[in-house]
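Problem 12. The chain below contains 359 residues. Write out its predicted structure in token notation.
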Amino acid sequence: MAAVDGIPCLLMRGGTSKGAYFLGSDLPQDPEERDGLLLRIMGTPDPRQIDGLGGAHPLTSKVAVISPSPDNLADVDYLFLQVGIDAASVSDRQNCGNILAGVGPFAVERGLVRAGGERTAVRIRMVNTDSIATAQFATPGGNVDYDGDLPIDGVPGTAGAIKLNFEGTAGSSTGALFPTGNVLDRVQDIDLTCVDNGMPSVLLRAADLGLTGNESPGDLEADAGLAGRLHDLRLAAAELMGMGDVSGATVPKLVLLSAPAAGGAVRTRSFLPVRVHTSIGVLGALTVAAGVLADGSVGHDLAVLPAPSSPFRIEHPTGSFDVEVGLEPAAGGFAVTSSAALRTARKIFEGRVFPRPRL
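Solution.
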């Protein structure tokens, strides 16, 4: 692969994230070689990522690798990679539902899937968690139409709706919706709920940490005492979840919960795990909803739960995010019956990217 000729790349906004999208065949097949190349493409390690495509924030230092699916269970395979900023790291330990929003359009753009008329459905295998999502979006005249009137909080303007229906998200990373076997655990004198509906997460009451839940991301990030407390809680909770030592990993996420303030079901502040999300991720939102819906969980009593079949509105620092999650009692606990969300995506740039020659 001659980096001197550049590598085909499509830069896209997916949901409230932004990332570089590649065909798997355009990257090295050896993971170590691939990751080294991506570090040079994204400009890592460097807090500004000044010499690459990265945007100096976890939400804008993301990569999607898309390939034709080898079987008839899906149309394409999608591998998500979180690229570090200060540290030379590339992680596949989590999924990303925001970047997922751009995978279906990318597949049509690159000819992996033929447009199906006015609307196209693309079945996507999320390689990180070996689960399936179907993306549905407008393709009038056989071309992806990114224009539309759907606003999503955290993104200026409006764009075309992309409906994401998820299958098999419950326990997709840890093996169980509630991986500790409980809907409520107590760690270091703090109640928490460990839940995995596509994104391993630890839910905590903001009030239990002396917070209102309305703090800005900047204020939370500047609180060194809070950072130390959350670091210790995350490591301890991850051990209970069977995830081992996660000191170098981006999961599980930590989510602070408080009563809603703007007509939603619950208010959130989500940690990535150190930086604070300016909104909330798709799979993170689906996971919060599933956790809060479970009777006895850490957020159940402080939430204003929606009526059955109504959207579950999650408040976040820049607005709110509606998801559809069904949860019902099952043998030994709870079962997720549905998980869906509306997102948007937009093609920003298409061309060839030239990695810096060395780290």
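Discussion. The chain has six helices and 17 strands. Students who got a different answer should revisit the alignment rule from Section 12.3.
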